[in-house]
């Protein structure tokens, strides 16, 4: 390290991995990374490198060197516990340190020279089975360093039989000291924790965990794109957002908890969150509630604010959330908060008994619903915007259980999906077909009527009325979910389309008679309003793809693009066809939502009757094909709304 510990990190940094340079760590994304790979005989090859460095260790164009580091293996299920494996040394770059029990379980730098890559081989303790991550502190200069740089998880699923042999390059070659070789070292306050029997629980309260076959040492499912430790659900209770994400191993947020029998008792909670989806200040919250709804709840918030991890406590008062002041009792002890490379981690301990703003809590003798929510922070005071998504357990839980908690089947995301599916069906189905019929079929079936009006008008009116009903129901569902006004690009375009679809039929009630000289004004206004509303709705549907609450796959966006291309192409073809078919005369009355329409000449020569019937049949076939294609595309979009991206990724893998 420059002007620091140039000959290696001191043992006093073993647990915290903090270099003690008298300055704070960096909170942004680190320009370094840890990679893990399979090694021979169950060993794991660990590489600490500057981003952009090749396999040979040569510096890339944008690579930033480092001068010092400290590397350990830690339990996936408890990242404060050091796993007592052994690292190999590099004579020029690295050396080991004995952190706890005189075991060389830590690797550090050997000198303060610049480095771009350090490779080492890690061997698990004898008879060790479990998951580990590799955690490093990397020092660029004395005042610039990053802590809690974590690798992907590695799983040892079969005991490794280790025969240590003498080697000049590995500290693991040293003979054993004869002292007990525990598999891992817990924090000092964990050492006296007794084992505890688990209460018998209803099987309906715990879902069976999905398992992923692993070899003796395997990297955690990279295909799922997550480094969140789902395997802790085998030793703790856990719950994730969005719904069913634990099954697919694609949670944006994972809550874990474990009851600790020390003193009067306490519960240790952890939140792991992937914040890359926001790239902004955001919060990930857990609440204790007497029901599965928001209101009168005790909340702990794990937040990322300006690149810094923060743990705060708050209460829900109705639909509002209010932070507890620094002087208010909250019964929470912060154990760890880290943020690195888009991963946010908070660990805290909550006393068994507490009273928060007059409400008494007992985490052993009473049971509570668990609420999860995440969303964005706004303003300098880290005010929480209304949550993007929330989820609640389907029943109260015992804090001593183990496994995945089952959530209410109809989470608030169901209302979002209902809103989206109704809007898709209304605008892309009912409105699109209604426009198509009004624009090209006014002169068909001239002698037939339905409900006392021409067929085209009856169909157009019925479809638009159905669309209006669906849109109003959709608006009610999203209002129930949000409960307040939250405006953004999607909401503004959606609101514009809703206002227009309400105003347009009201204006139609006052339309002049067809022979009125002012009829053309109505025709133009009706046309412009109708198309503006339709376009606004389509833009809102496109913007919905980028809403984090829905988490739709890219297939949704592609289907929507196909619909837009198909819709525009169909209208272009029909316009050219109808212009050619009716070019003999031009009406002064613009068709509904058309500019200006060429009307069929009713005095078609008898010699052309057969030709007219043929073309009439072709146009009706075009209508049938248009309706079928639109319905198929709508079904595809609605399926994408209800099936999250996580499920798509799971199937692909």
Question: What report would you give on this structure?
Answer:
The protein is an alpha+beta fold and 653 residues long. It folds into three domains: 11-190, Immunoglobulin-like (Sandwich), CATH 2.60.40.4060; 223-405, Immunoglobulin-like; 414-652, Four Helix Bundle (Hemerythrin (Met), subunit A). It has helices at 245-248, 412-440, 455-482, 489-508, 519-544, 554-581, 609-642, 645-652, and strands at 32-38, 44-50, 68-75, 82-83, 86-87, 94-97, 106-109, 117-123, 130-141, 144-150, 154-156, 184-185, 206-207, 217-219, 237-241, 253-260, 266-274, 282-289, 297-305, 308-317, 320-323, 332-340, 343-351, 353-356, 359-362, 369-378, 383-384, 389-392, 403-405, 449-450, 453-454. Strands 3, 6, 7, 9, 10, 11 and 14 form a seven-stranded antiparallel sheet that branches. Mean pLDDT is 78; it is low at 161-181, 187-225 and 584-607.
Brief sketch in words of this structure:
Mean pLDDT is 78; it is low at 161-181, 187-225 and 584-607.
